[in-house]
Design goal:
alpha/beta, eight-stranded mixed sheet
Length: 555
């Protein structure tokens, strides 16, 4: 392995870890032709399924990669979450509602298959130097960059220099430890047996995602994509991993659920504990940690891997701007300020949904089982309790102005079908392309910008487009024909004639609040610590309703 001199750089960015977050970040940087070195200690893809679902936001990211149609071939659309007792009484049911992002609200996946495809896609980019079987040993930061200490697949040590580091190396992150960061929070004492299998013969309800809600033996029963299946079973008091050290012992446990060798084949099993942990800081100088390296949550809402993928998208386009000299390194402070509140919301949502699964107090269980069937019919409950486009927003980050309930800043734009001026229908993202886009409602957006604003956005490669209801309304600029009126209604709802979208489809600027290019730290310098605001000042979130439902069940 070539040794780099202290003053040379082997790449602009080193990504440590090549799980879903690492490959997402590498792909976005590869799409921007940013030189990247990826260190991944495992020589091959991890063969077991961990995550079980992706939603429309994650699928929109895969669409940006151009692989959404491919990965969907190995996924199944999820219909609902169902809580049942062992006597088949439905005590709660949550369906999924269309979020307007151009994809189904939720999909069941088989993670190794999905991950293999996103890795294959990343191979297209020549700026990615992927080093499988190479271990990260440590790093030293200085004023100009980072020296990485690594070990190759033959355990030979070497060093190289990069300008910046992105740690995506999971819950036991060595990058996090090198930065001296410590997670705060708790690990639940209950241990879970997680069994992966394959359906060989249909059994009743094998196509339903069921949370068998029982005070002694709650079980999560999950139909993964394409005939794969998972059972998550808590160990009882006095049990340990050793009580399930053979396949025969695992089968003995599955038989109590009505599953035996005639129904399924066991592919493997493992043991997990549920964590509620996070970092208060994600960045130190030239290095940032994201995903499980920065936060861990229970699995009940299916948001752990997806949160890591969203972190990676957020981080990667900002790293790309810095690499190209288009933004100062301080923009990396906005990764945490934008992502941490959403992760906190998803963690709380997972925690509260877990109450419906593994509650142990007999009185609370009785109330849950009695009131749950009535509460699940409350209008809009699913929309409030599960992630939606309305929750895909932030208040503190890389925007011009202050996001508020009444404006579009920090919100994700919907993705309707639209036409181009040739009469060809597209999903919005496929028409507007990657990178920055400025929309003007029935006009060229530059008409409401100063020369300096136009030049500033143009320097970032922004595409300027008109949104019109009819192609004949405009012919002298790039045009989006909004034949359904979805974009028009969305812009008018927030009082905007012009908005500028970031590469992640969030609004960075709008005419009511200012069309300047945001400074590197966005609006952070005017708000102090963005995560210390009291819950009373936050926008009402899904967790508020989940908490309210729990309160109703516990009055």
């Amino acid at each position: 392995m070539t040794q780099d001199t202290p003053t040379s750089y082997a790449a602009d960015v080193a990504i440590i870890g090549y799980g879903p977050a690492g490959v997402t970040a590498a792909t976005y940087l590869g799409m921007n032709d940013v030189p990247v070195i990826v260190l991944e200690k495992d020589a091959d893809l991890y063969s077991r399924a961990r995550a079980v679902t992706v939603n429309d936001w994650t699928m929109r990211i895969f669409q940006d990669f151009g692989i959404d149609a491919i990965v969907k071939q190995d996924m199944d659309i999820a219909r609902a979450l169902i809580w049942k007792t062992y006597d088949r009484k439905i005590i709660f049911r949550l369906g999924f509602t269309d979020g307007g992002l151009g994809h189904a609200p939720s999909y069941m996946i088989y993670q190794p298959t999905m991950e293999r495809e996103i890795r294959r896609n990343a191979e297209r980019y020549g700026s990615i130097d992927l080093r499988l079987g190479h271990s990260f040993l440590g790093m030293t930061q200085d004023e100009d960059g980072v020296t990485i200490r690594a070990e190759d697949a033959d355990r030979r040590p070497y060093e190289f220099r990069v300008r910046r580091v992105l740690g995506t190396d999971g819950g036991s992150s060595r990058v996090r430890k090198e930065l001296g960061f410590s997670m705060i929070g708790e690990t639940r004492p209950r241990r879970w047996l997680v069994v992966d299998g394959e359906v060989t013969r249909w059994w009743p309800e094998c196509n339903e995602l069921v949370f068998w809600s029982d005070p002694e033996r709650p079980v999560v029963d999950i139909p993964l994509a394409k005939g794969n299946h998972r059972w998550e079973i808590p160990l009882q008091q006095g049990e340990s991993d050793a009580d399930y050290d053979t396949e025969a012992k695992v089968w003995a446990r599955l038989r109590t659920l009505g599953i035996d060798e005639s129904n399924a084949r066991i592919k493997g099993w493992a043991f997990y504990s549920h964590h509620l942990r996070h970092l208060d800081a994600w960045r130190d100088r030239h290095a940032t940690v994201i995903g499980d390296a920065a936060h861990l949550m229970p699995p009940w809402a299916g948001q752990g891997m997806q949160s890591a993928i969203r972190d990676a998208q957020n981080a990667a386009w900002k790293y790309a701007l810095v690499a190209k000299g288009l933004a100062g390194e301080d923009i990396l402070d906005t990764i945490r300020s934008e992502r941490s509140p959403h992760v906190e919301m998803m963690t709380e949502m997972s925690k509260q949904l877990g109450f419906l699964i593994e509650g142990a107090d007999p009185k609370l269980i009785a109330l849950r089982n009695t009131l749950g069937p009535y509460l699940m019919h409350l209008p809009g409950l699913s929309r409030k309790m599960l992630p939606t486009t309305a929750t895909n927003r932030f208040e503190h980050g890389w925007v011009t102005g202050m996001p508020a309930k009444s404006n579009a800043l920090g919100r994700m734009v919907p993705q309707p079908e639209v036409y181009d001026t040739l009469g060809i229908v597209h999903r919005l993202d496929d028409l507007i392309g990657q990178g920055f886009v400025a929309f003007g409602l029935d006009r060229d957006p530059r008409e409401l910008m100063t020369a300096e604003q136009t030049a500033g956005w143009a320097a970032l490669g922004t595409r300027f487009m008109s949104v019109v209801g009819s192609a004949s309304s405009r012919s002298d600029t790039d045009t989006v024909v909004d034949h359904t009126g979805t974009l028009t209604r969305w812009l008018r709802k927030y009082g905007a004639t012009v908005v500028v979208l970031r590469p992640d489809r969030f609004v960075a600027a709008a005419d009511p609040t200012g069309l300047d290019v945001p400074p590197a730290r966005g609006n952070l310098d005017g708000v102090g610590n963005p995560t210390s605001r009291s819950a009373a000042t936050r926008q009402r979130s899904p967790r508020d309703l989940v908490t309210s439902v729990r309160a109703a069940l516990t009055f």
